[in-house]
Amino acid sequence: MSAVAVLKGGRSLERQVSLRSGARVEDALERLGHRVAAIDVDVDLGARLTEATPDVAFVALHGRDGEDGTVQELLEVLGIPYTGSRVSACMRASDKVLAKHAMVDQGIPTPSFFAFNETAFQVLGAAQALPAVEHRLSFPIVVKPASQGSALGIKFARDGAELPGALLAAFSYDHKVLLERYVAGRDLAVSILEDSDEPRALPIVEAVPEQEDFYDFESRYEIGRTRFVCPAELEPAVAQRAEELALDVYRMLGCSGFARVDLMLEHGSDELFVLEANTIPGLTETSLVPQAADAAGITFDRLIERILQAALGRGQQP
């Protein structure tokens, strides 16, 4: 059995979700017989890791520092194997704008978008270009912070009057925002798990919000706010296409270990559009990766063990 440092909490706005993911991971690791050191990530992380001398770190940090490559870089310096994707993949996936540009370059369908940072608005007069954006994307427009997860800060602008407020809300979360064409349809998630170093798609999960028009932060993490269907009830060809797109994105970004790719299946056209990839997806009671694993016959404990062993095996490679 291994000595495992579970990294959780941290400073991001997704701290509470991370604590819940971390707690579930700790419980599973202890049931599996591993020696667990739970670390709520703070300024003393380097010292605490040096003191704990773990064989491997299980990264359950969501949002800033956890999904953007920051903690992965530190673990690389300290020579500690860790779960999930490496630094470069985390950096690419955590920046929604960068990831979407990469999708466009590779011919992977993603909703049309524009992105601006604060400088563009404060110095370059980007506000004057908003009528052109409205014309190009048409309403409603989805406004997102570029690097937040868990649907934090996402707003829907249904007309021009709502767009400035949506932008202000998104800028309160990040210095860069994404304006994206709204795709009305079915919200799908494809979880990917390494199997003998080969990424494989788990059964697709469809999230059906019960009380809202869209799958927001509360819908994700409050039990009873969303109904989940897994495997999603899809035509075989659509399911296969969704899995192929998810694996294409996974490989394109250079992900490893496990990840989740979110897509929309558009009403009327049955076209699939990739929204984003998550390199540290949630592992809470309502999270989608555990649901997909369960549908594939993989218990939560076995899921955690497989993620851990993939990290240990990678760490032993020359």
CATH architecture of the largest domain: 2-Layer Sandwich
Low-confidence stretches: 215-221
**What's the structural domain tally?**
3
* Major sheet size, sense and barrel closure: 6 strands, antiparallel
CATH homologous superfamily annotation of the largest domain: ATP-grasp fold, B domain
Kindly state the number of beta strands: 13
* CATH fold-level topology of the largest domain: D-amino Acid Aminotransferase, Chain A, domain 1
Mean pLDDT: 88
CATH class categorisation of the largest domain:
Alpha Beta
Query: How big is the Rg?
Result: 19 Å
Query: What is the structural class?
Result: alpha+beta
Approximate strand percentage = 15-25%
- SSE order, one letter for each helix or strand: EHEHEHHHEHHEEHEEEEHEHEEHH
Estimate percent helicity.
Answer: 25-40%
Structural commentary:
The chain is α+β, with helices and mostly antiparallel strands. It folds into three domains: 3-83, Rossmann fold (3-Layer(aba) Sandwich), CATH 3.40.50.20; 92-109 and 183-298, D-amino Acid Aminotransferase, Chain A, domain 1 (2-Layer Sandwich); 113-181, 2-Layer Sandwich (Dna Ligase, domain 1), CATH 3.30.1490. The protein has helices at 15-31, 45-52, 70-78, 87-94, 96-105, 118-122, 130-137, 163-171, 217-221, 236-253, 288-295, 300-315; strands at 3-8, 35-40, 56-59, 113-117, 141-145, 155-157, 176-181, 185-195, 198-201, 205-209, 226-229, 258-266, 272-278. Strands 8, 9, 10, 11, 12 and 13 form a six-stranded antiparallel sheet that branches. Strands 4-7-5-6 form a four-stranded antiparallel sheet. The two termini are 22 Å apart. The model is unreliable at 215-221 (pLDDT under 50).
